[in-house]
Design goal:
about 150 residues, alpha+beta, three-stranded antiparallel β-sheet, about 55% helix, about 15% strand
């Protein structure tokens, strides 16, 4: 007598689809958390080692965006003082970077004003310490996510 399943192929596909949705949500949550952490870190660098706000544009251009397959999923830029130009510059820079990475997930943390590089070259910390933070945290976060997926599959 053959064994008859009490489920269909569609049931299996639905279950895997839900599982993949959960994984994608966890990836996006982690990228958002890392983006928030990097931006908060960059915005809190003291003026002595960082920079002093004059117009608010540079600090307003510090933000992040998350992309999936080249499409923006989430972005966070906050206007500081009269920094409307900074918000726009940060968002435009994130979009330009994303155009070079049309596949997969991408977190872009920006300091979008053109003079950010000049300040960095003079030894000022605009995004350097935030970049180091991301390089340290991302591998740990990926490993944690992989461990959680493996545990869920067992």
């Amino acid at each position: 007598m053959p064994i008859k399943p009490n489920f269909t192929r569609a049931d299996i596909e639905r279950r895997f689809s839900k599982f993949l949705d959960v994984i994608e949500n966890k990836i996006l949550e982690r990228l958002q958390y890392l983006g928030e952490k990097c931006v908060a870190h960059a915005r809190q660098v003291p003026a002595g080692s960082g920079f002093t706000d004059q117009t608010g544009n540079l600090r307003s251009s510090i933000g992040y965006a998350i992309f999936k397959d080249g499409r923006a999923i989430h972005a966070s830029y906050e206007k500081v003082k009269d920094g409307s130009d900074g918000v726009k510059a940060g968002q435009e820079l994130a979009q330009q970077v994303a155009e070079n990475y049309p596949k997969g997930y991408l977190l872009v943390v920006t300091a979008g004003m053109n003079y950010a590089v000049k300040l960095e070259s003079k030894g000022k910390d605009v995004l350097t310490s935030a970049e180091l933070l991301a390089k340290r945290e991302l591998p740990r976060m990926v490993e944690e996510l992989k461990d959680n997926v493996y545990k869920a599959l067992r």
